[in-house]
Amino acid sequence: MGLTGTVMHEFGLGVRFSVCVAVAGLGVVFAGCGLPPRDTTPLPYHFTQEAFRRDVQREHPPLEIPLNERWYATAGALGITEEGLTWTRGADGGHLAIDVQADAAFYNTLELRMKADTGSVCRVAWLSEHEPELAFEKCPSTSGAIFSDNKFHTYIFRLSRERWFGSLRRLMVSPLELPGAVSIQQVRLAYRPPEAPLRVTLGGVSMEALYGTQPATSFVLPEGAVLEAYAGMLPAAWEMSAKGVVEFQVLAQRGQEAPLMLYRRKMTPGVVAFHHKWLPIYIDLGQFAHQQIRLHLRVNHAGLPQGDYAFWGDPRVFVPRPAPPTPPAKAPVPVFLISCDTLRADHLSCYGYERQTSPELDAFAKRDAVLFENALTPETYTLPAHISMFTGLHSEHHRTTRYTNLAEEVTTLPEMLRGAGYLTAGFTGHNWWLLPERGFAQGMDYYDVPAEAFRHVYRTTDRVQDWLQNHPYPRQFLFFHNYDLHAKLSGEYQLPYDPGDKEYRTFSEEDDGKGLLLDARTRGFHANDMLEAYNDGKITFTPEEHAYILKLYDDCIRLVDESIGDFLRSLQVHGLYDNALIIVTSDHGESHNEHGFYGHFDLFEEIAHVPLLIKFPDNAFAGQRYAEQVTLEDIMPTIQDVLDLPALESSDGVSLLQALHAATPAPATPANEATPTPAPAHPYLFLRRGGKIAVRTNEWKLHWDDPRTPGREALFQLTSDPLEMQDRLEEKPPVLAALEQELASFFDQKRDGWHVQLLNAPPTWSGHLLLTSTAPISSLFYIDENNVATPQPIEHPQTVEIKAAAPWPHLLIRTTEPGAQLQVNLKSDTLFTLAAGQREPIIHVDFSGTLDPAAPDLAKPNLDAIQTAPIIALWYETTAHAGTAAATPTEEQKQQLRALGYVE
Questions:
Q1: Rounded mean pLDDT, 491-505
Q2: How many Å apart are CA 362 and CA 358, to the nearest integer?
Q3: DSSP 3-state of 808
């Protein structure tokens, strides 16, 4: 009997699914391609995850590109010698090229061994069969740093996975950006197992993706199975032509019968602007229940070049309406993480604030949630603080910075939950610090960021509500971020804080028309630049203006509070509230002139103390308040504990569920009349912002600034001085020594990377150091005499240049690639002893050389055995994980970041 009939629905953001269902779990029975049916598993079947596993296991021999007369140069002199290709670049530029025949699917890196006598950057570009005549400047390409020491080095170029596919036709190399000479000894394409699935972003939505037609996958389908996916095309598809038509097809096949078309859609991105986004696909597979079928995902492009830019977005098969779990099995727990960017805890009514800023959260805390009175952020910075929520790691350990994305090897909260059968989605109100490549898209089925710097909370809420309407599944994780409390950009906003609607001018409306802040505005300062001007001493505010700014901030809290109330009510409508784990928190607070400035670039309590409200399933511990200090790193371990998932081996957080159990007194018995007070979850918490670090207990807090800054320490007793106004350092209370030891110990745990240290230099010594890495530099630290490492800004992503006199700081440099080589150029007016690893020390005035971290003799030298001074020591300590280089912001993005108070 043949397959007949089909049911199809399309839905997505802005398109309502016609059936709203309440469900109790997920499940699917599936089989690998050509294999017998597998057992039932609660996990949805993600095509991208299976493809990634195949890619990791796949091997392919490298393809050597011959160094012969087939190479040609568009300018300059090209020759063939015993060393290989030699090319002299003139003032008119040019590049090298060779026509090749290769399938991009078999390779993902280019290995280039060459030497150069000048320049610092090499660019590699390529053309596919459909792009044979693009100008070199417009070709898909990648680039990396090179060394101009006239010595051979092997450089590894990772090829862009969004533009590296199809049939390769031409390879191009521009090894120098300056006039000079190079010799190329080897060029080859190689395959290295990928670190992560391919992720593609269209219209602000990022998801894992598969390119083109896919191998058939065999399933044994249970009742109620569906296929959900998205169809999308890269910008090149509509930029190259307005005529290209690509058809996405889904077919089902049983045995040897002819495939049945379940879905087909033509996309013409050159004509229809809507086709520039992901287009949703939803197919009911109910007619195939208990049958084994093969599903085919095909892209039909009739040979047109647009087919090279067609992707399937996160195709997955799952069951949205399985039978309820049979006791003693537990009902699935939905997980919702709400982050209110820049929300300070002490401005919520439930934390004791005098204004009624948060009626919705007040009711939530009193009725359903636990309020944690002393929750702290590990870093008062949007990006690393949120990564700590997503990893359970302090920023000192996850190492995500403005220059570095999270390493793929670090397990994130969405990855953990998707591995447990959850659907995962994220929606943010800000883009740059929460971009998908930062690490937030790891494990996300659907990750949505605004195209602009800031998106109003109700615009984000609309997208969240659409997701819930179409995915009312209890086994889901949803991250909901808002940015409305952050100081605003100039342009649309004139006031530094503004809810964007007069309806929410609850507290500040009474001051409108009083002429407040007019002096600043008439002098050209608007929105956040007004606060920056105040911090820089360019303008002053009257007491009434300070109060007005505070009311505006509180208005924004009232706006966010109402939006959270709407979200919580929608969970109730969809049947997702009662058994949910709901977490409401913030990445950092905001100073409102308590310490002479506005913003969040320090570690005072108004910035570091954040709200944390947690509703546990079935309202366990509802209405309680927990007084001991906790941290954002506790969020991930708490979720793991509530869901009975295995804890990760490395975590800086603890389960707050266990902390609450420990804090709940046991019933009094004759044998247990005096129950001991449980130990706090965190006796010490560690905070960071740039070069500033701090350690905190429930009673004391020690601040420690950049080691080059005078007056680096300050000590406050929080129990008697919660606003941190009275420095107790000079009194040297007994607790000080323990705090200093804990602080130094925590921030001295990891020393992997390149070290440069000056020892025994006379006060008259001076020198010039230039370090260049083959991979972008992710972190630069100064290490002081107490061995505390404090981060410093990076001026250039691949070089460190220092012109310094003694005393010279001990430098620690980390790169995004653990094996990156380091070129050293060091000059001095007087002799110095260079101790490069454990090699024989050499006396120099001028040194230039390249160091390879793989060399066994680059471990830390025995400095005590060196007699001549001054000594410049260079060594390398093995890197654990490094992450990837963050994108460089455009000039427009830099302006936005400056206007928001960030320093690029």
A1: 90
A2: 6
A3: coil
